[in-house]
Fold this protein.
Amino acid sequence: MFLGAPGAGKGTQAEIVCEKYSIPTISTGALLREAMAEGTELGKAAKSYIEAGNLVPDSVVIGIIDERLKKDDCKGGFILDGFPRTVPQAEALDAMGVEMDLVISIEVPDEKIIARMSGRRLCKDCGTSYHLIYNPTKEEGKCDKCGGELYIRKDDAPEVVKSRLEVYHTQTEPLKDYYEAKGKLVIVEGQEKVEDTTALTLAAIEKSRG
Ligand code: AMP
């Protein structure tokens, strides 16, 4: 599981790690954005929370995760990115009988996050995330993986990022104590370069696997 503030790089690391270990990444943020793009009832209900930088209600995201983790591709393991984000969500995961092997918290100071977010870009088609400076595409404006067009998330606007950081500190950060108490937490300091953070992340994973 990856914990971390918005823009700390957890989605990017999750994508890299899931390819290396051939397991799926389950990202509630990506699932909600997909639902929004498709205009489903779920997407419509989530839109106002997401665009204001607030959390979608626990019952909604817990339902999404419960359904997603039942799929066959999760049988050999999976990575959680962006779930849980509150203590009740973590408790719901425990109640489902889902136990994490390792919880990696990627830590980046708020000032750096605010500066970084303005360069973040996402693929409209496959959702892969990039950064203009730290993780650029080979061809400007086009996804390396599928050639899709890149876009800027509405909730990456500076005012929204500030409220997302506040939400992170008040509602999500207590999860560090929650998983520390279970002996599962490892802190990884987010580095300037994606590959440097990846090296620290992979070292933490290998260490936990013995
Ligand atoms: P992310 O892509 O992980 O940054 O998620 C984008 C937005 O989706 C968040 O700012 C929340 O509004 C919503 N969201 C994603 N995951 C959760 C979650 N576990 N609990 C509540 N809201 C979530």
User: Anything to note?
Assistant: The pocket of adenosine monophosphate is lined by residues 6, 28-29, 32, 49-50, 54-56, 61, 82-85, 89, 155, 164 (CB under 6 Å). The chain has a mean pLDDT of 95.
